[in-house]
């Protein structure tokens, strides 16, 4: 698989949101989530939880993109899910940790979720405790 940092899916869709989460594009993910929400699109709980994972890890900031494309490893959703199950997050060596701020996007999105589960709550707790 070739490394890419730009999304291929341009339309506002759940697939486009998943792609942006996979590419760790924090701002683009939040923007697309907001557009989907405004359009009245119901999102899968797993997708929204993945967005929370991204936000709680990076704290509303974009990850460093100082890795050259030929040196970078592509991030596959299966890899993210596997790593989250093993470690409770999808942190990779060298990834910067974001700073938790009051009234951040993770808190806002969590409050907008029509349905939450244990994963949702654990992610929020890890985000808050990990940044305390």
Stretches with pLDDT under 50, minimum 5 residues? 67-76, 86-96
What is the averaged pLDDT score? 80
Identify the overall geometry.
globular
Classify the beta-strand content into a percent band: under 5%
**Major sheet size, sense and barrel closure:** none
What is the β-strand count?
0
The portion of residues assigned to helices is 40-55%
Rg: 14 Å
Measure the end-to-end span: 37 Å
Structural class: mainly alpha
Order of H and E elements: HHHHHH
Count up the helices: 6
Protein architecture, described:
There is one protein chain. It contains 6 helices and no strands. The chain has helices spanning 14-22, 26-38, 45-58, 77-87, 105-112, 118-130. The protein is globular, with a radius of gyration of 14 Å. 24% of the residues are buried.
What are the key terms here?
about 0% strand; mainly alpha; globular; about 50% helix; about 130 residues
Entry summary:
The protein has 132 residues and is mostly helical. It has helices at 14-22, 26-38, 45-58, 77-87, 105-112, 118-130.
Secondary-structure map with pairings?
Blueprint: H1 14-22, H2 26-38, H3 45-58, H4 77-87, H5 105-112, H6 118-130
Helix pairs in contact: 1-2, 1-3, 3-5, 3-6
